[in-house]
Design brief:
The chain contains seven helices and eight strands, in the order H-E-H-E-E-H-H-E-H-H-E-E-E-E-H. By secondary structure, it is of the alpha/beta class. The protein folds into two domains: 7-108, GMP Synthetase, Chain A, domain 3 (2-Layer Sandwich); 111-204, Ribosomal protein S3 C-terminal domain (2-Layer Sandwich). A four-stranded mixed beta sheet has the order 1-2-3-4. A four-stranded antiparallel beta sheet has the order 6-5-8-7, with helices on one face. The radius of gyration is 30 Å and the shape is elongated. 21% of the residues are buried.
Length: 260
Amino acid sequence: MGQKVNPIAFRLQVNRDWRSRWFASEKEFPEFLLSDIKIREYVKKKLQLAAVAKIVIERAWNSIRVTIHTARPGIVIGRKGAEIEKMTADISQMSGGKQVKIDIVEIKTPELDAQLVAENVAMQIERRIGFRRAMKKAVQTTMDFGAQGIKIRCSGRLGGAEISRAEWYREGKIPLQTLRQDIDYGFAEANTVAGKIGIKCWVCKPEEGTVIPERPERERRGPRGDRGERRERRPEVNAEAPTPADEAAAAQVSGGGEKA
């Protein structure tokens, strides 16, 4: 009853890896852990509009490597690398003057990243867009890009209601207990006037070798009155073949000529 486990931690030994890659003694562990939390909070706050999916932190003897996975690397880098330099200096100051190096990894298909999908839904809810509409649109977009399945769950005071509740949408397959299945998980929070709304997202990624479309184009409707295939097409009339009216007129002409 209620014994839930994080899907990322559940698959650590199979197809997932730690997001903090370092080893520390019992004395240094609390300091390193608190430093990692501060670095992640700083980067997330600094790059709110850069679609940052995850931040991987690696530590060596006196150096820190921060790898930022983002869908918009141009915003992270900034003009002539100004943002990178400023972030490097700030993180170095936060970690006690250690040498810091920031790497950027671009996410080719953000529609298949569960964290970015959840943050996108949260952003729409904050803009007062209906939560059902935002969830359905996210589900449809992710499935268009070849995902095997997706599940989105929103909980909180949905629509500003007095009593909090949870609603979810699912399409395709989401085998949460199948460890060999590549399932991505993301969580985001939407800060609304009524309170916080939590969004959880599970994405069952496509199998290897699946061709992922770059950007699926929606079918556009024609001008008004043009219903495309729905309109019944009239049978084509062969101009060369004589119609019944033409035959009657010809018979009448020929009859008149004989009488004359």
